[in-house]
Amino acid sequence: MTDRLRQALAEVSAAANAFSEQATDYEALLQAITDSCARALDASCSVGLYSDDNSTITPVAVTAVRPTMEGALEGMLRHPRRYEQTLVGQLAPETGNLFVPEIALSDLRDRLTPEAYNALGHFGVRGFISVTMRVRGEPIGVLTVIQHDTARPPLDDLDREIATHLANLAGFAIANARLFRRMQEEAAGRMSAEQVAERTRASEQRAIQANAFIDAVLENIPAMVFVKDADRLQFVRFNRAGEQLLGIPRGELIGKSDFDFFPKDEAEFFVAKDRETLRNQTMVDIPEEPIQTANGTRWLHTRKVPILDEQGESRYLLGISHDITERKRDMAALERARDAAETASGELESFSYSVAHDLRAPLRAIDGFSQALLDELGSELGEVGRGYARRVRSSAQRMATLIDDLLKLSRVTRSPLASQRVDLGELFRTTVAALQRDEPDRRVEIATSGDLVTHGDPRLLAIMFDNLVGNAWKFTSRRPIAHIALRAEANEGEQVFSISDDGVGFDMKYVQKLFGVFNRLHADSDFPGTGVGLATVQRVVARHGGRAWAHGEVDRGATFSFTLGDTRKA
Amino acid sequence: MTDRVILLVEDNRDDEELTLRALAKSKITNPVVVVRDGVEALDWMFRRGAHATRPDHQIPQVVLLDLKLPKVDGLEVLRELRANDATKLTPVVILTSSVEEQDLIRGYGLGANSYIRKPVDFTQFVEAVRQLGLYWLVLNQPIPG
Q: Which residues does residue B65 pair with via DSSP β-bridges, in sequence order?
């Protein structure tokens, strides 16, 4: 064996050692490959690796034996080049292996790109070897040896052998290093023990924060909130509202049971409800329960909820109690008030009945016997006496009208509201028609406009229209041709109705008095009336949740407007 | 012979007098029997008690019934009249001051034939009596028998 061969074997075996030492450090391994190659062959070496789809080759490590070459090779590092642009891709694309011991540059001119040709000339490249590194037949990269030193003998077959051996060794070393790197990356995906510990600490921290959050929420809920453990029904949690309600500090409550605080029968009731909740695993609602506290008996509305563990077993009992003592007291007061109101209403009803029946009877006698007087003794009374008798009659009749109007007013207040769809335009025309029948000689023109369909109690609205339209009719009696109009307008989503006339009107100075009972703006001799009509209108409108108002001008007519609220749901 | 009698059930003497005047003014000449409370009204109708011996040729042509009566009220009288075969078809006109809807509804519900509110104005009252007299005593064909 020649010295040169012996030395070559030694270099290859040293390279194998170097590769295995760097088996776990991918970058260091790549550098070790070009370093070993340069030392073994006394030439510059580079390693280029294929991309995943084999379309490009990227130089990943270089070792230059002469400084002149170093910059050029390192400048190529990490710049991917297409396979067909590499020397081996241009000169031996099929085998991927290239051995050019001595370049005759002029021979290569036609086979290389101008850049490659110029580069070879510029750096004084004399010869090179390219060997494709393969793992199980698949190319993974190219080891290139470049000889540009005139002092060194030209590359020969032994150099090519050595380069081929190194490429084989390097290929396996790279494959192994890649495998190792992938395993490391996979392992990194899983958690290290330290990471697990760190995460546990973080989640404990979060749990503490969440607990503090829940505590803060529970503390500030204005209802008593408590938690009991499912086995012994002892308190494990209590909020501030609970402390205040019972008048017992939390410290004395935790770890205790109902029997420590409440009378035996009460505690038994609570515990029975607790057990029911935990056994059925459903919420139990206790609308009313008394509880003895440091502040006396309170009434609670309590909901009890089972809290289950992951196995579906009841672990805790959550209780939420509202103090309804005040509400209960208010309800009782309300009920008493309602009873009183009903009694009063009943009394009013019988009063109304008496008024209707009992007050009218004497009036009938006054009127009837005045007429009897006129019939039987009229001639003896003389003109003055007959006049007095007639005035007695008319007063009695006026009082009867007054009583009737008051009864209607009280009926408007008492009768329940039966709301339905009502066409006010139709009601308007019906009301006018009735008035026209009584006074066929009057000339009154009517007009309507807008959407007159609404919701309300037809009977009450009829009473209201009798009054409003009746007024308009009455106060236009001096017009040869009177005008009465019903209008509907939408104002801020509300229907506003108005009935206007061109009658005698009124002075706005007295507008406040209009809707009061018995308040009149006109002498009875001018326009007869009882002063109850507009009060009745006001009641009807109020019953519907609406408003009524008026506008007038002396001798220029009056307008009465009203809304009916939203009675569709009533 | 039979008397086509009007039975007036009225506790108020003034109203009684006025009703009689109104009937007279309306030229209604049928005999009028006046009873002053609900018990008496039923006694007369069923010929019992104080009226057990009343002549049976007096056939009530129409009953003018006030509602607010001592002892037994008008609606109760009406109920008993309608419950009895002998009187269930007798015309009954409720003649009252009340216009309470409940009274109207109950009155018609119990089988009243008319419901007339006594007006305060005597002129109107005479007119109302005239019309009811014309209808029940002249135009209406009584049940045979």
A: B9, B94
CA distance A524 to chain B (A): 19
Instruction: Please report the pLDDT score of residue A569 as a whole number.
Output: 43
Q: Each residue of A288-310: pLDDT tens digit?
A: 888 888 888 889 999 999 998 88
Q: Do B14 and A393 touch (CB under 8 A)?
A: no
Q: Would you say A177 and A49 are in contact if contact means Cβ atoms under 8 Å apart? A: no
Q: What ipTM does the predicted assembly reach? A: 0.80
pLDDT beneath 50, residues of chain B: none
For tokens 């019992």, the residue is B48
Q: How far is CA A502 from the centre of its chain?
A: 56
Place of tokens 């009803």: A349
User: What are A250's two structure tokens?
Assistant: 């939390």
Question: Whole-angstrom Cα distance, residue B86 to residue B96?
Answer: 25
Question: How would you label A96-128 residue by residue, b for 16+ Cβ within 10 Å and e otherwise?
Answer: bbbbbbebeeeebeeebeeebbeebeebebbbb
Query: What does the alpha-carbon distance between residue B72 and residue B9 come to, in Å, rounded to a whole number?
Result: 11
In this structure, chain A runs to a length of 570
N-terminal to C-terminal alpha carbon distance within chain B: 13
A292 and A273 Cβ atoms separated by less than 8 Å? no
Query: CB distance from A405 to chain B under 8 Å?
Result: no
CB contact at 8 A, A37 and A166? yes
